[in-house]
Specification:
The complex is a heterodimer.
Chain A lengths: L1 H11 L32 H32 L1 H12 L1 H28 L6 H30 L3
Chain B lengths: L6 H6 L9 H26 L5 H9 L1 H29 L3 H31 L2
Classes of the chains: A mainly alpha, B mainly alpha.
Chain lengths: 157, 127
């Protein structure tokens, strides 16, 4: 309980630290500075990609719901399926699907990056930045390639 | 002195339930399974872009597609439930709300996975 109380006190800002405060002379833990938070840090590729991994994962939850609805429509018969296809083929539907494609390709590539890290490899700073840039480039290239292939399979727009 | 601590106190402190890596490990197991499954799924979707109902159901109802799609749904929704649980645990600090949201995500994932599986089985075997 003790640690929780201290955290709450800091969050509420009851005892803000001013630069002039003689922090050392105050024995209470409550006024000790907290670790710098997101607003303090300059955005880095590493942290942004980490946040993006989480964000795309959440978005893909919505994609999974859409996928199940599409399957249910296909199971319900030709009319329901035609309705689902019309929705997916609309401008808004295509925009959403393009967004889902970006998310799934990014989450897949960055997920592979995470799995490599789990083996203890590629954790040096330059390697982390290199793999991050590769993931970003790969996401755009693969997403565009998937959509070109999709339109080619349909025989045009 | 340790013997004077209650079992609950130990667990709430540093006590091990011997399942500490279970969640982390299952997130990786489902992730590894999903790598080839998602690639297969994307290729399948691209190949059937704009196809009519008969073509799509013939694809979905085939034994290989059905099997792979069922695993995709299982691994995918499991992975989603584990991931969403971590997100909720990180950002929702009110204990009751946190528990309610995690249960909602888990029940929702099971319901959606079942709905998808029943839809696929209906396509494959239903009238």
């Amino acid at each position: 309980m003790g640690t929780d109380d201290r955290g709450a006190e800091n969050r509420n800002g009851d005892e803000r630290i001013r630069p002039s405060d003689p922090v050392v002379s105050k024995p209470q833990l409550s006024v000790r500075p907290l670790s710098p938070h997101l607003q303090i840090y300059r955005p880095q590729l590493t942290s942004m990609l980490s946040i993006l991994h989480r964000l795309t994962g959440i978005v893909l939850g919505g994609g999974a719901v859409a996928l199940v609805l599409w399957l249910v429509a296909a199971a319900c018969g030709g009319d329901a399926f035609a309705c689902a296809q019309a929705l997916a083929g609309s401008i808004l539907g295509r925009l959403l699907l393009f967004g889902f494609t970006l998310c799934v390709v990014y989450h897949l590539l960055n997920g592979i990056r995470h799995l490599v890290w789990d083996t203890g490899r590629g954790l040096e700073l330059d390697a982390v930045y290199l793999s991050g840039r590769l993931v970003v480039a790969g996401t755009f290239i693969l997403t565009v390639a998937i959509w070109i292939a999709g339109y080619a399979a349909q025989g045009g727009i | 002195m340790r013997a004077l601590r209650s079992e609950l106190g130990r667990v709430r402190g540093l006590g091990s339930a011997k399942e500490g890596v279970q969640h982390w490990w299952l997130q990786r197991v489902t992730a590894i399974a999903l790598v080839p499954l998602v690639i297969w799924f994307l290729i399948g979707l691209v190949a059937h872009a704009g196809a009519d109902h008969a073509t799509v159901t013939a694809w979905l109802g085939g034994p290989v597609t059905l099997g792979l799609f069922l695993i995709l749904l299982g691994a995918g929704f499991w992975h989603l439930a584990l991931g969403m649980q971590v997100v909720i645990e990180d950002y929702v600090h009110r204990e009751g709300l946190r528990l309610a949201l995690i249960l909602l995500v888990k029940f929702g994932c099971v319901a959606l996975m079942l709905a998808g599986a029943i839809a696929l089985l209906t396509i494959a075997f239903g009238g």
